[in-house]
Amino acid sequence: MVYEPVAPSGPPGTVVRSLGLPDGGIEEKNVSDKSNLSEDRWQEILTPEQFDVLRRKGTERAFSGAYWDEGDHGTYRCAGCNEALFSSESKFDSGTGWPSFSEVVEGGRVRTEEDHTLGMRRVEVSCANCDGHLGHIFPDGPAPGGARYCINSVALVLDSDEGSSEGSGVEE
Ligand SMILES: [Zn+2]
Question: 32 CA to middle of ligand 1, Å?
Fold first, then answer.
């Protein structure tokens, strides 16, 4: 499939950045406005796993994702639009097999909504920028806030702090 970075007939300013391509990682740090993309467009842009979670509110299998046990420092961004969502500072090991955070990163934008599917009362968390489904919030997180943001790895992209001058990132 040929990737076309520009929406076919959109007005100027609707350029869709190519996020997370395998070579070179994410260089574009600007959040792209994808709030008006069609589901067909999303299907082209996202991997099938990302599409299932972000656009179909699916849930990845526990312990199957890239970030549940991830220890690197950095900012976790939305896999759909690159919005900064969570920081490794608030990440903790919940034992659930999904990456878990106690709070949203400063300036991060998420939307919450009651979710009554699957016979449960849960609070859904979505990216406020692109409306992508991220996961759920549960009230059994660590003090003082007590929140546990249970997020699908596949909905996130880690923007690692490896460029900082700590000098401990080299492995032989
Ligand atoms: Zn997003």
Answer: 9
Give kind and range of the element (H or E) at residue 136: strand 133-138
Spot the catalytic one: 78, 81, 130, 150: 150
Q: Containing H/E element for 85?
A: strand 84-87
pTM: 0.76
CATH of the domain at 143: 2.170.150.20
Question: For the segment 88-128, what is each residue's pLDDT rounded down to a tens digit?
Answer: 999 999 999 999 999 999 999 999 999 999 899 999 999 99
Residue 95 belongs to a domain: yes
Count how many domains the chain has: 1
- β-bridge mates for residue 149, sequence order: 101, 137
127 annotated active-site: no
